[in-house]
TrEMBL record:
Keyword annotations of the record: GTP-binding, Hydrolase, Nucleotide-binding
Classification lineage: Bacteria, Bacillati, Actinomycetota, Actinomycetes, Kitasatosporales
Name of the protein: ATP/GTP-binding protein
Family that this chain belongs to: Belongs to the GPN-loop GTPase family.
Keyword Hydrolase: yes
Domain of life per record: Bacteria
Length: 201
Protein backbone atom coordinates (compact mmCIF):
# COMPACT_ATOMS: atom_id res chain seq x y z
CA UNK A 1 0.00 0.00 0.00
CA UNK A 2 1.32 3.45 -0.95
CA UNK A 3 -0.02 6.30 1.20
CA UNK A 4 -3.64 5.30 1.84
CA UNK A 5 -4.38 3.47 -1.41
CA UNK A 6 -6.01 0.07 -0.99
CA UNK A 7 -5.15 -2.99 -2.99
CA UNK A 8 -7.67 -4.03 -5.63
CA UNK A 9 -10.71 -5.79 -4.23
CA UNK A 10 -10.11 -4.58 -0.67
CA UNK A 11 -12.22 -1.94 1.04
CA UNK A 12 -10.92 1.65 0.79
CA UNK A 13 -8.89 3.01 3.65
CA UNK A 14 -8.90 6.45 5.17
CA UNK A 15 -6.80 8.85 3.08
CA UNK A 16 -3.42 9.94 4.36
CA UNK A 17 -3.46 13.61 5.32
CA UNK A 18 -0.29 15.68 5.06
CA UNK A 19 0.46 19.18 6.27
CA UNK A 20 2.26 21.55 3.91
CA UNK A 21 3.34 25.10 4.75
CA UNK A 22 3.35 27.93 2.22
CA UNK A 23 5.85 30.61 3.20
CA UNK A 24 7.65 33.57 1.69
CA UNK A 25 7.84 37.33 1.82
CA UNK A 26 5.08 39.90 2.09
CA UNK A 27 2.92 40.07 -1.04
CA UNK A 28 4.55 37.12 -2.80
CA UNK A 29 1.29 35.27 -3.47
CA UNK A 30 0.83 32.84 -0.57
CA UNK A 31 -2.87 33.62 -0.06
CA UNK A 32 -3.42 33.45 -3.82
CA UNK A 33 -1.70 30.05 -4.05
CA UNK A 34 -3.80 28.50 -1.28
CA UNK A 35 -6.97 29.91 -2.80
CA UNK A 36 -6.09 28.67 -6.30
CA UNK A 37 -6.15 24.99 -5.33
CA UNK A 38 -8.28 24.69 -2.19
CA UNK A 39 -11.38 22.54 -2.69
CA UNK A 40 -12.96 24.19 0.34
CA UNK A 41 -13.50 27.88 0.88
CA UNK A 42 -10.10 28.96 2.20
CA UNK A 43 -9.84 30.31 5.71
CA UNK A 44 -8.15 33.68 5.53
CA UNK A 45 -7.01 35.99 8.31
CA UNK A 46 -6.37 39.10 6.26
CA UNK A 47 -6.59 42.60 7.70
CA UNK A 48 -6.34 45.99 6.05
CA UNK A 49 -2.97 47.69 6.13
CA UNK A 50 -3.15 50.83 8.26
CA UNK A 51 -1.20 54.00 8.74
CA UNK A 52 -0.03 52.66 12.11
CA UNK A 53 1.75 49.81 10.34
CA UNK A 54 3.39 51.97 7.67
CA UNK A 55 6.75 52.29 9.52
CA UNK A 56 7.14 48.47 9.75
CA UNK A 57 5.33 47.22 6.62
CA UNK A 58 7.61 47.37 3.60
CA UNK A 59 5.28 47.63 0.61
CA UNK A 60 7.97 48.49 -1.94
CA UNK A 61 7.28 46.47 -5.06
CA UNK A 62 3.72 45.68 -3.92
CA UNK A 63 2.37 49.19 -3.52
CA UNK A 64 -1.13 48.17 -4.64
CA UNK A 65 -1.45 45.61 -1.83
CA UNK A 66 -3.79 46.84 0.90
CA UNK A 67 -4.26 43.73 3.10
CA UNK A 68 -1.96 41.38 4.98
CA UNK A 69 -2.25 37.91 6.54
CA UNK A 70 -1.99 38.22 10.31
CA UNK A 71 -2.27 34.57 11.38
CA UNK A 72 -2.55 32.07 8.52
CA UNK A 73 -4.35 30.96 5.39
CA UNK A 74 -5.81 27.46 5.37
CA UNK A 75 -6.99 25.28 2.51
CA UNK A 76 -7.34 21.64 1.54
CA UNK A 77 -6.72 19.74 -1.68
CA UNK A 78 -7.22 16.07 -2.52
CA UNK A 79 -4.33 15.05 -4.79
CA UNK A 80 -5.59 11.47 -5.04
CA UNK A 81 -8.45 9.61 -3.39
CA UNK A 82 -5.95 8.39 -0.80
CA UNK A 83 -3.89 11.58 -0.34
CA UNK A 84 -5.13 14.88 1.07
CA UNK A 85 -2.98 17.95 1.68
CA UNK A 86 -3.77 20.57 4.29
CA UNK A 87 -2.19 23.87 3.30
CA UNK A 88 -1.16 26.47 5.85
CA UNK A 89 -0.05 29.83 4.51
CA UNK A 90 2.25 31.67 6.91
CA UNK A 91 2.26 35.43 7.53
CA UNK A 92 4.89 37.17 5.44
CA UNK A 93 5.68 40.11 7.67
CA UNK A 94 8.38 39.91 10.31
CA UNK A 95 6.12 41.09 13.10
CA UNK A 96 3.95 37.97 12.66
CA UNK A 97 6.79 35.43 12.40
CA UNK A 98 6.09 34.16 15.93
CA UNK A 99 3.25 32.19 14.30
CA UNK A 100 5.68 30.11 12.23
CA UNK A 101 6.71 27.78 15.07
CA UNK A 102 3.08 26.86 15.77
CA UNK A 103 2.22 26.41 12.11
CA UNK A 104 5.30 24.29 11.32
CA UNK A 105 4.49 21.70 13.99
CA UNK A 106 3.91 18.37 12.24
CA UNK A 107 4.52 19.70 8.72
CA UNK A 108 5.77 17.24 6.11
CA UNK A 109 7.33 20.01 4.06
CA UNK A 110 7.03 23.56 2.81
CA UNK A 111 6.79 25.67 -0.31
CA UNK A 112 8.82 28.88 -0.21
CA UNK A 113 7.33 31.31 -2.72
CA UNK A 114 9.77 33.75 -4.30
CA UNK A 115 9.38 36.89 -6.41
CA UNK A 116 12.38 37.62 -8.65
CA UNK A 117 11.83 41.36 -8.10
CA UNK A 118 12.33 40.90 -4.33
CA UNK A 119 14.31 37.69 -3.88
CA UNK A 120 15.74 38.84 -0.55
CA UNK A 121 12.24 38.64 0.96
CA UNK A 122 12.30 34.83 0.92
CA UNK A 123 15.70 34.42 2.62
CA UNK A 124 14.12 34.31 6.09
CA UNK A 125 11.80 31.44 5.10
CA UNK A 126 14.64 29.48 3.48
CA UNK A 127 16.80 29.93 6.59
CA UNK A 128 13.91 28.90 8.84
CA UNK A 129 13.29 25.58 7.10
CA UNK A 130 17.00 24.83 6.68
CA UNK A 131 17.63 25.33 10.43
CA UNK A 132 14.71 23.05 11.35
CA UNK A 133 15.51 20.41 8.69
CA UNK A 134 12.01 20.75 7.19
CA UNK A 135 12.13 19.72 3.52
CA UNK A 136 11.17 22.60 1.24
CA UNK A 137 10.85 23.53 -2.39
CA UNK A 138 11.22 27.02 -3.86
CA UNK A 139 8.41 28.10 -6.18
CA UNK A 140 9.25 31.19 -8.21
CA UNK A 141 5.95 33.00 -8.70
CA UNK A 142 6.12 34.45 -12.22
CA UNK A 143 4.36 37.79 -11.87
CA UNK A 144 3.07 39.61 -14.94
CA UNK A 145 5.67 42.11 -16.11
CA UNK A 146 8.47 40.67 -13.96
CA UNK A 147 11.73 39.73 -15.68
CA UNK A 148 12.19 36.01 -16.34
CA UNK A 149 15.48 34.46 -15.25
CA UNK A 150 16.87 30.97 -15.85
CA UNK A 151 16.25 28.63 -12.91
CA UNK A 152 20.00 28.15 -12.40
CA UNK A 153 20.49 31.92 -12.03
CA UNK A 154 17.72 32.11 -9.41
CA UNK A 155 19.19 29.10 -7.60
CA UNK A 156 22.60 30.78 -7.41
CA UNK A 157 21.07 34.07 -6.24
CA UNK A 158 19.28 32.23 -3.42
CA UNK A 159 22.39 30.12 -2.63
CA UNK A 160 20.24 26.98 -2.57
CA UNK A 161 21.69 23.57 -1.79
CA UNK A 162 21.74 21.31 -4.82
CA UNK A 163 19.07 18.95 -3.48
CA UNK A 164 16.44 21.70 -3.00
CA UNK A 165 13.96 21.70 -5.92
CA UNK A 166 13.17 25.00 -7.64
CA UNK A 167 10.13 25.35 -9.93
CA UNK A 168 8.68 28.24 -11.90
CA UNK A 169 4.96 28.63 -11.19
CA UNK A 170 1.90 30.83 -11.37
CA UNK A 171 0.23 31.07 -7.96
CA UNK A 172 -3.07 31.92 -9.67
CA UNK A 173 -3.17 28.75 -11.76
CA UNK A 174 -4.54 25.57 -10.19
CA UNK A 175 -2.55 23.14 -12.34
CA UNK A 176 0.69 25.06 -11.84
CA UNK A 177 0.18 25.07 -8.07
CA UNK A 178 -0.65 21.35 -8.07
CA UNK A 179 2.70 20.66 -9.76
CA UNK A 180 4.45 22.57 -6.99
CA UNK A 181 2.57 20.68 -4.26
CA UNK A 182 3.28 17.30 -5.85
CA UNK A 183 6.92 18.36 -6.08
CA UNK A 184 7.22 19.23 -2.40
CA UNK A 185 5.54 15.96 -1.33
CA UNK A 186 7.90 13.93 -3.53
CA UNK A 187 10.90 15.86 -2.22
CA UNK A 188 9.86 15.40 1.42
CA UNK A 189 9.26 11.66 0.94
CA UNK A 190 12.65 11.28 -0.75
CA UNK A 191 14.37 13.18 2.07
CA UNK A 192 12.68 10.97 4.68
CA UNK A 193 13.80 7.83 2.82
CA UNK A 194 17.39 9.10 2.71
CA UNK A 195 17.35 9.79 6.45
CA UNK A 196 16.02 6.28 7.16
CA UNK A 197 18.69 4.79 4.94
CA UNK A 198 21.40 6.79 6.69
CA UNK A 199 20.19 5.58 10.10
CA UNK A 200 20.10 1.98 8.88
CA UNK A 201 23.70 1.99 7.63
Amino acid sequence: MIFGRSERGKPPVEPVTLKILVAGGFGVGKTTLVGAVSEIRPLRTEELLTEAGRPVDDTSGVEAKNTTTVAMDFGRITLREDLVLYLFGTPGQERFWFMWDELSEGALGAVVLADTRRLEDCFAAIDYFERRAIPFLVGVNCFDGAARYPADDVRRALDLDGHVPLLMCDARDRESVKEVLVGVVQHAVAQAAQRRQAVGT
